[in-house]
Amino acid sequence: MEEKKNAFFTTAVIAGILLIFTVADFCRGDRLYSETENRVLAARPSLSRESVFSGKYAEDYEAYVTDQFVSRDKWIGIKTRMDILLQKKEINGVYLGDDGYLIEQHLPEEYSELLVAKRAALLQKLVGEWDATVMLVPTADNILTDKMPANAPYYNQAVLLERIAAQVGENHYVDVYGSLKAHMDEYIYYRNDHHWTSLGAYYGYLAWAESRGEEPYAYRTDAMTVVSEDFLGTLHSKTNLDRKGDTIQYFEGTEKRPVTVTYDFNEVTDTFYETSYLDTKNQYGFFLDDNHAIVQIDTSYRNGKTLFVIKDSYANSMIPLLTPHYQRIYVVDLRYYNGRLSTLMKQMEPEEGMDVLVLYNCIHFLEEFSYSE
Amino acid sequence: MVFSSVLFLFRFLPFFFILYFLVPGRGKNVVLFLGSLFFYAWGEPVYVLLMLFSTVVDYVNGRLIWRYRGRKQAKAFLVSSVMINLFILCFFKYADFLIQSVNGLTGARLPLLHLPLPIGISFYTFQTMSYTIDVYRGKAKVQNSILDFGVYVTMFPQLIAGPIVKYSAVEDALHNRKVDIIGISHGAKRFAAGLAKKALLANTIGELWAEISAMEIGGISVLTAWMGVFAFAFQIYFDFSGYSDMAIGLGEIMGFRFPENFRYPYVASSVTDFWRRWHISLGSWFREYVYIPLGGNRRGVPRQLMNILIVWTLTGIWHGAGWNFLLWGLWFALLLMMEKLFLGKILAQLPKGIGILYNSLAVLLGWVLFSLGSLGEIGGYLAAMFGFGGKLGDSQGWYLLGEYFILFGIAAIASTPLPNLVMGRLEKSETGWGIALYRLGEKVVPALLLLLSVAVIVDGTFNPFLYFRF
């Protein structure tokens, strides 16, 4: 009798788990998008004779059921915690570093020699034609090496940068690597996001100024303005752990004199900083209103100089620091700009010429940069 | 449909069992048959017809063999059944391999058929052959109900990955099976344990093998190479034995008793012992329908060696149409022959630990042959394992070891009888707390395993199923 009671109980627990989640799964609604996973979830496939007999319907339906499964985010959270219990130092492409750092993983095998050669050649062409300055920012895995898990593999960007420097020539190359490495113990990368902080961008700016022979503006690193203390960025999303947020700061000095910022030629504002993003998941969008194809900045420094920046999102927090050096700055993001870059550049170039700056992190550079005449 | 999927666990399984237990008497077989057809057709909407064809052919041949039993015609129908099954199996599984081999040897350019392999074909053709052969031999009675026979062939628990259930093992259960709550709870626990083996161990450690096998073989260190084989060894064991556990558990819930398929193969103390513990249902099928009919060990040593060679050649290519599978079979044939001749006697006198070590090495080397497709890769990998070319250990190897050493530890313990031994001790313990602990564990552990497995499945970045290919 005792044995039967136990057997009944055991069965009830197992069957109960399966049934409860089955019922719960039928009660939930479909989601289009997962914010935590940052991807579109599979939708219910449509039924057709063709899709059934090819097996595609079954395949799609299975993806749909799995993607939409009740409390999907919580299940993934359980899996992540299991991984941590197993002492895993890498979760979903993110290293769990020391001092509370999440560091994005970039494996060496992902960046082939062919890819590097191709991007470097395009860059060399651009530099040759426009006398451009090149700023490639290493990602956190290359700078915060003391915070990386022991022996963790990473794509060595120092090698890439050496090659780029040689190819474009030292006087076109800004050594951001060395500048950041010298400050590796400071808060130069976010702990929960793949971007550099405003302080990191500031050290990048110093390297730029030094290489260009410009007198750097006296931004006050001891008096930066805090706008958020609960920034949980992309790396947090990928791991979905309970974590303390990052602090977002900016330099007030960047807006000491009035600016006019025009997004995609139609949206005009008088600031680099969009506080509305601080209430969303994408708080980094605070800088330069997230990403736009073309941004035009008119400063109040009437020196007649124009800068043309070809960039990724890393640049967004550094560009405001360049304000005192130019009267006008054009900013182009090739992920969003569909036209021909060289045509645009010729169109924007004033008679007296313009400086050209290529500002990417190394990874985005390899993944996104292109230039054609 | 794969057992370790949201679709199976939270759609098929609950609906199937609710229906199955609601419907009384003979109706249960109708539910099981239709449910199994749906289960199979979900992944193979076309090949389900092939399976039904195979079912009908063997049903008819079985009846004819029975009708003419003891007469010459019976043999003709047996031959017809076996030939049709082997033809189906060979055509779908080996045609392209044969064409490629012919092309390779003769320089001909015969076009390939590019037929996808029907899931489970190697399993169900072997099952139906066991039926007609056993009827011919008088070891089983004819099955006059096409429904019951259909249930036997198509039954979803063991349909796509075994165990290979001989007809005689379930003959009675097909029309008359009893199940009580103790059997159901036992089956449910067995299912949860099997699911955990698959999702928590095979899938997770399989990621390591996937990572290592994708590396440039020339560049990997000895450490990385060995971790890779160990990872594959654990992956294939927990994948396959987990699937068998789930099948056996599901069968038990319905009152079927399927044969055990694995008995801790990695603690075997010789290769002979290993094959009594690994994929037991396939081994016993070959023993009963090939090895013994060929004379087994009763016709002298040379004949026995020949029989071993034949059986393990077949075992090898049963696993897939590729030279590496053949090589894998031959590797074991060689070791088994050596054990028959002299090695077995030596091993018997040595401590058991040495035997286990020897068998592990033999099996691990076997997995290199098994898991890598081409001879070039196999050669390169073996070279890496034994330090020709690479370093002993590199930072990549140490990093991966750090990522996986706990999982390796858990997998190693889980592949020994230890966990069951502990549970068994507790169950039979005289003290009150021992029993209490057992009772608690009995309820909590399966539930926990089930929940954690679901987490891994939902996360589901990596859920391959190795035995689909066979």
Overview of the structural elements:
- The complex is a heterodimer of chains A (373) and B (470).
- In chain A, 36% of the residues lie in helices and 16% in strands.
- Chain A has a 7-stranded mixed beta sheet with strand order 6-14-12-13-11-9-10. Chain A has a 3-stranded antiparallel beta sheet with strand order 3-4-5.
- Chain A folds into 2 domains: 2-96, no CATH class; 102-368, no CATH class.
- Chain A is α+β, with helices and mostly antiparallel strands and 373 residues long.
- Chain B is an all-alpha fold and 470 residues long.
- Chain B has helices at 6-22, 27-43, 48-67, 72-106, 121-137, 146-154, 156-159, 167-175, 181-213, 222-254, 271-277, 280-291, 301-318, 323-349, 352-371, 375-385, 395-414, 418-427, 432-459.
- In chain B, helix 3 (48-67) runs antiparallel to helix 4 (72-106), helix 9 (181-213) runs antiparallel to helix 17 (395-414) and helix 10 (222-254) packs parallel to helix 17 (395-414).
- Chain B folds into 2 domains: 6-177, no CATH class; 183-469, no CATH class.
- Chain B has 19 helices and no strands.
- The chains are: A alpha+beta (373), B mainly alpha (470).
- Chains A and B meet through helix 1, helix 2, helix 3 and helix 4 of A and helix 1, helix 9, helix 17 and helix 19 of B.
Short overview:
The complex is a heterodimer of chains A (373) and B (470). Chain A is α+β, with helices and mostly antiparallel strands and 373 residues long. Chain A has helices at 2-27, 49-54, 56-68, 72-85, 113-130, 140-143, 157-168, 176-181, 198-212, 234-239, 341-348, 362-368; strands at residues 33-34, 39-40, 90-91, 94-96, 102-104, 133-137, 225-231, 246-250, 260-263, 267-269, 294-298, 306-311, 328-333, 355-361.
**SSE sequence of chain A, one letter per element:** HEEHHHEEEHEHHHHEHEEEEEEHEH
Please state the CA-atom Rg of chain B, rounded to the nearest Å: 23 Å
* Proportion of residues in extended strands of chain B: under 5%
Number of strands of chain B: 0
Question: Which structural class is indicated by helix and strand composition of chain B?
Answer: mainly alpha
Q: Which percent bin holds the helix content of chain B?
A: over 70%
How far apart are the termini of chain A?
85 Å
Low-pLDDT ranges of chain A? none
* Number of separate structural domains of chain A: 2
Question: How confident is the prediction overall: mean pLDDT of chain A?
Answer: 91
Principal-axes shape call of chain B: globular
Oligomeric status of the shown chains? heterodimer
Q: Using DSSP, what is the number of strands of chain A?
A: 14
Main sheet overview of chain B: none
Helix content of chain A: 25-40%
